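BACKBONE GEOMETRY TOKENS
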Amino acid sequence: MRFFVRRIIFYLITLWAAITINFFIPRVMPGDPVQAAIAAAGGSISPDAIPALEALFGLDPDASLWSQYVDYLGLLLHGDLGVSFSYTGFAVTDVIKDALPWTIGLVGIATIISFVIGTLIGSGIGWRRGTWADSLLPISTFFSAVPYFWLALLSIAIFSVGLGWFPASGSYDRNMAPNWSWEFVGSVIYYGALPALTIVISSIAGWILGMRNMMVTVSSEDYVTVAQAKGLSERKVLFGYAARNAILPQISSFALSLGFIVGGTLVMEIVFSYQGIGFMLFNAVNAKDYPLMQGCFLVITLAVLLANILADFVYGVLDPRTRQEG
């Protein structure tokens, strides 16, 4: 119990540090949001409108940095991330809510599929090392070195331009209005199939290699030999003893992957023009939309922290040694 309490306290301190850094970074960046808005308008906005823009964006040049920090914490407690500059009139929370489900649905499902398939294949290859299954490793090594954007462009060239099986960009048919009908859901799956396939192929090799190497190490441990000597079935030894211990390092990596799901696969979303949070963050950086950038970074940070908390708890359950004090 003390292990879990210590971890919770540690992550609360980490969360406070992340929120504080997230507050100060936009304020130490060169430039000014109001001047950026005037520049984006081509200088057509009169300088006399600066006070109105500051009021619109919630900026108070006369307030001290400490008071702004206290106000920022107060707004966070109420779930208020400010107003977006590029999405005029829309709260940052609403803008992120619109983009987040697209990223979680695509990148999340693709990451889970690649983790499950890669872990199972890696377990089998590592358990039966020295057989024909090892011939799959060079292929895995090749794909683990392939960057997302190259594979995405290659997929578009083959399956979209060449064969015409999938659309080259977008997240759904723009002739349809978003709804929960089977026709619209089918359109979302159809448009997301190629980006998801790109993510799975690019990331599955890492899971295979990681699990295979751990299985080779674990399968020579004494407790695996004892389990085999006791006459347990091969499946029981494989999953109950070898794979259960070999998967522990994979869990930490998987937790980080789940956390970064919220951030999306930036390059992939740009290549496919997919309306996820990664593509939205890219547009926010180009537009110097500081509140939206700040909100995106905060959501990504929270997702990574929650994923690490989950990994610590699962790790503590699977391996009791991590809960023991030195």
Remarks:
- The longest helix spans residues 182-218.
- The mean pLDDT is 75.
- Residues 2-77 form one domain.
- DSSP finds 14 helices and no strands in the chain.
